[in-house]
């Protein structure tokens, strides 16, 4: 086996080795550097990686050192810059629902009560495409990242549609759910789609064939959240029945039911290593679960009202919760300690996420503002003001230098730094 | 009220009744809703999307959806038809020029499958204006007597003063009550 080249993955930091096997075929291998920080002793890390990885020979050390410095530089990028309002997009004639970037960040999509999904150019703010065909609210939307050449839309019309992201052509309509589709995702390889519905089921679909591969039966109330793990082997679903279920993607069987919450689940996510997952609940707590055993590792308390969203940072070392009490809290994943309370919003916070570097948190609130927070101190760095009605959704691009916010005021705003 | 709350409001529950408020633009839908929840009504902008309010009326929790009435967004009213327990249709009684138009919109709503048998309350709003048509005149003008497939009621009111609003809500709550009792008997 021979190392052919290194590839970098910025968020979460990692090095990908492309190597040639004896039969001349090429394969990839990922080395995760989830603990990398600007304080890391790079020489020690280089020695450790070379020691543990037989593919990398001693003479590659200088190159490896340069790559690791590049990764550190990426963790520190955009740290001191403020965001400014770049464009207001009079996007839709009715309120927006969700918004999402493609991996490169040059495009993003917005869903709306006006039954369309629109594709936008992030650089110019131009509307590129209108995906028209659903007969009711377009609620959940996603790109097949990292490829970004396809888009899926899930609608209150009970169907999911697959579109060409370049031309806007409709490839396929996936039918089978009995009521609204409210969450969906591509698997990491872009070959399978998962949809979750108010009909209490989730479904797995084959992208190419358009067939339903499995119906995930077991929840006794609406499914409002679902996520694939990083490898695409398991899926978690969060339900109004107060539980989270872990499913095997290959056969559609339920592996674990994560029970313990005393209220509806609002949001779920895997960490990057996919050994843990989190669930936010109307019961005001967030739980950290060990995925392989199905045991609850931590119950994170402190909020005085419903938790509406939860999110890990890119490496999974921290997580953040958003609550109807108007605050967000940053927790350490390993010990469950609350590290910061983000206080300042004047209404409930409905969406929260980290920037890819993990240095900032973005919150979206019913007080019509978005806010940026310093993760370490919990200080509010910036208030993104201008929307005239509550903000339903927000997202960072992969570089962490652009933010989009989607609002009930029918507009979408692009903020840049 | 974020997106998650909207999903929770989509669920049909026995504890909460879902009421849809429709009508032409400038009929006073949002003003009626704000007046009912005792909010300030001095500066109300045209509704571009929707407003949702939870109202308590005699122990009843009412989940009221006020949907924008401008012509361009009327085709989207059907987004909200599911799980509707009662329809409130608001008419600007002083807008004689558009009386025919509002009658046509109401007629189309009453033909919708998803709204079949749903009780309808018609608020003849703006009775505080001199030029307002009386509820009787509107009933006559729009041939409301031909509605036979559901309970209906017309209520003169003024969102500005609040006159008549509570009377209308009483009627709605009674009808919802009748319907839920009937459902209960079916189950039994």
Automatic annotation (TrEMBL), chain A:
<feature type="repeat" description="WD">
    <location>
        <begin position="258"/>
        <end position="299"/>
    </location>
</feature>
<feature type="repeat" description="WD">
    <location>
        <begin position="300"/>
        <end position="332"/>
    </location>
</feature>
<dbReference type="InterPro" id="IPR036322">
    <property type="entry name" value="WD40_repeat_dom_sf"/>
</dbReference>
<dbReference type="InterPro" id="IPR001680">
    <property type="entry name" value="WD40_rpt"/>
</dbReference>
<keyword id="KW-0969">Cilium</keyword>
<dbReference type="InterPro" id="IPR019775">
    <property type="entry name" value="WD40_repeat_CS"/>
</dbReference>
<dbReference type="GO" id="GO:0070286">
    <property type="term" value="P:axonemal dynein complex assembly"/>
</dbReference>
<protein>
    <recommendedName>
        <fullName>Dynein assembly factor with WD repeat domains 1</fullName>
    </recommendedName>
</protein>
<feature type="repeat" description="WD">
    <location>
        <begin position="131"/>
        <end position="173"/>
    </location>
</feature>
<keyword id="KW-0282">Flagellum</keyword>
<keyword id="KW-0963">Cytoplasm</keyword>
<keyword id="KW-0966">Cell projection</keyword>
<keyword id="KW-0677">Repeat</keyword>
<dbReference type="Pfam" id="PF00400">
    <property type="entry name" value="WD40"/>
</dbReference>
<keyword id="KW-0206">Cytoskeleton</keyword>
<feature type="repeat" description="WD">
    <location>
        <begin position="216"/>
        <end position="257"/>
    </location>
</feature>
<keyword id="KW-0853">WD repeat</keyword>
<dbReference type="InterPro" id="IPR020472">
    <property type="entry name" value="WD40_PAC1"/>
</dbReference>
<dbReference type="InterPro" id="IPR015943">
    <property type="entry name" value="WD40/YVTN_repeat-like_dom_sf"/>
</dbReference>
<feature type="repeat" description="WD">
    <location>
        <begin position="89"/>
        <end position="130"/>
    </location>
</feature>
<feature type="repeat" description="WD">
    <location>
        <begin position="342"/>
        <end position="383"/>
    </location>
</feature>
<feature type="repeat" description="WD">
    <location>
        <begin position="174"/>
        <end position="215"/>
    </location>
</feature>
TrEMBL record, chain B:
<feature type="binding site">
    <location>
        <begin position="125"/>
        <end position="128"/>
    </location>
    <ligand>
        <name>GTP</name>
    </ligand>
</feature>
<keyword id="KW-0547">Nucleotide-binding</keyword>
<feature type="binding site">
    <location>
        <begin position="23"/>
        <end position="30"/>
    </location>
    <ligand>
        <name>GTP</name>
    </ligand>
</feature>
<keyword id="KW-0813">Transport</keyword>
<feature type="binding site">
    <location>
        <position position="47"/>
    </location>
    <ligand>
        <name>Mg(2+)</name>
    </ligand>
</feature>
<feature type="binding site">
    <location>
        <position position="30"/>
    </location>
    <ligand>
        <name>Mg(2+)</name>
    </ligand>
</feature>
<dbReference type="GO" id="GO:0015031">
    <property type="term" value="P:protein transport"/>
</dbReference>
<protein>
    <recommendedName>
        <fullName>ADP-ribosylation factor-like protein 3</fullName>
    </recommendedName>
</protein>
<dbReference type="GO" id="GO:0003924">
    <property type="term" value="F:GTPase activity"/>
</dbReference>
<dbReference type="GO" id="GO:0005525">
    <property type="term" value="F:GTP binding"/>
</dbReference>
<dbReference type="InterPro" id="IPR027417">
    <property type="entry name" value="P-loop_NTPase"/>
</dbReference>
<dbReference type="GO" id="GO:0046872">
    <property type="term" value="F:metal ion binding"/>
</dbReference>
<keyword id="KW-0653">Protein transport</keyword>
<feature type="binding site">
    <location>
        <position position="69"/>
    </location>
    <ligand>
        <name>GTP</name>
    </ligand>
</feature>
<keyword id="KW-0519">Myristate</keyword>
<keyword id="KW-0460">Magnesium</keyword>
<keyword id="KW-0342">GTP-binding</keyword>
<dbReference type="InterPro" id="IPR044612">
    <property type="entry name" value="ARL2/3"/>
</dbReference>
<dbReference type="Pfam" id="PF00025">
    <property type="entry name" value="Arf"/>
</dbReference>
<dbReference type="InterPro" id="IPR006689">
    <property type="entry name" value="Small_GTPase_ARF/SAR"/>
</dbReference>
<comment type="similarity">
    <text>Belongs to the small GTPase superfamily. Arf family.</text>
</comment>
<keyword id="KW-0333">Golgi apparatus</keyword>
């Amino acid at each position: 086996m021979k190392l052919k080249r290194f590839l970098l993955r910025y968020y979460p930091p990692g090095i990908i080795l492309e190597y040639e096997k004896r039969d001349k075929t090429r394969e990839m291998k990922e080395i995760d550097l989830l603990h990398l920080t600007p304080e890391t002793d790079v020489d020690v890390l280089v020695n450790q990686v070379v020691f543990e990885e037989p593919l990398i020979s001693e003479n590659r050390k200088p190159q490896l050192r340069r790559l690791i410095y590049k990764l550190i530089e990426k963790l520190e990028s955009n740290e001191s810059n403020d965001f400014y309002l770049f464009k207001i997009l009079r996007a839709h004639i009715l309120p927006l629902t969700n918004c999402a970037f493609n991996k490169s960040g040059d495009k993003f999509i917005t869903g709306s009560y006006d039954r369309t999904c629109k594709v936008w150019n992030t650089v110019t703010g131009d509307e590129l495409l209108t995906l028209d065909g659903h007969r009711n609210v377009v609620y959940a939307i996603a790109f097949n990242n990292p490829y970004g050449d396809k888009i899926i839309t899930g609608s209150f019309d009970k169907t999911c549609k697959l579109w060409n992201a370049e031309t806007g052509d409709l490839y396929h309509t996936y039918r089978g759910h009995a009521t609204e589709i409210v969450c969906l995702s591509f698997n990491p390889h872009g070959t399978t789609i998962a949809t979750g519905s108010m009909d209490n089921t989730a479904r797995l679909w084959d992208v190419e064939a358009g067939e339903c591969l499995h119906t995930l039966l077991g929840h006794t109330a609406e499914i409002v959240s679902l996520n694939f793990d990083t490898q695409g082997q398991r899926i978690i679903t969060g339900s109004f029945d107060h539980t989270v279920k872990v499913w095997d993607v290959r056969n559609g069987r339920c592996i674990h039911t994560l029970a313990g919450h005393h209220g509806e689940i609002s949001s779920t996510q895997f960490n990057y290593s996919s050994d843990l997952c989190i669930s936010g609940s109307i019961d005001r707590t967030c739980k950290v679960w060990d995925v392989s055993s199905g045991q609850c590792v931590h119950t994170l308390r402190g909020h005085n009202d419903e938790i509406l969203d939860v999110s890990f940072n890119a490496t999974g070392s921290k997580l953040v919760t958003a609550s109807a009490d108007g605050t967000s809290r940053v927790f350490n994943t390993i010990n469950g300690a609350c590290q910061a309370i983000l206080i300042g919003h004047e209404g409930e916070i409905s969406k929260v996420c980290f920037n890819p570097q993990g240095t900032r948190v973005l919150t979206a609130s019913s007080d019509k503002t978005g806010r940026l927070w310093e993760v370490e101190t919990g200080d509010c760095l910036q208030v993104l003001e201008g929307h005239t009605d509550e903000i339903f959704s927000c997202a960072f691009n992969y570089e962490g230098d652009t933010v989009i916010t989607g609002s009930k005021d029918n507009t979408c705003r692009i903020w840049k730094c | 009220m974020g997106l998650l709350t909207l999903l929770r409001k989509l669920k049909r529950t026995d504890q909460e009744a879902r009421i849809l408020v429709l009508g032409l633009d400038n009929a006073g839908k949002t003003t009626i809703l704000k007046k009912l929840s005792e909010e300030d009504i001095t500066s109300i902008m045209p509704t571009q999307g929707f407003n949702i309010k939870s109202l308590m009326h005699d122990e009843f929790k009412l989940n009221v959806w006020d949907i924008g009435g401008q012509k361009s967004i009327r085709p989207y009213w059907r987004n909200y038809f599911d799980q509707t327990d009662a329809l409130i249709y608001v008419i600007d009684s002083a807008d004689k020029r558009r009386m025919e138009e509002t009658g046509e919109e109401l007629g189309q709503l009453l033909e919708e499958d998803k709204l079949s048998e749903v009780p309808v309350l018609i608020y003849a709003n703006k009775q505080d204006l001199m030029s307002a048509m009386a509820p009787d005149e509107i009933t006559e003008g729009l041939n409301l007597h031909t509605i036979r497939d559901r309970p209906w009621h017309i209520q003169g009111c003024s969102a500005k003063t609040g006159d008549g609003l509570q009377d209308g809500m009483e009627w709605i709550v009674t009808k919802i009550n009748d319907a839920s009792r009937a459902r209960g008997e079916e189950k039994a």
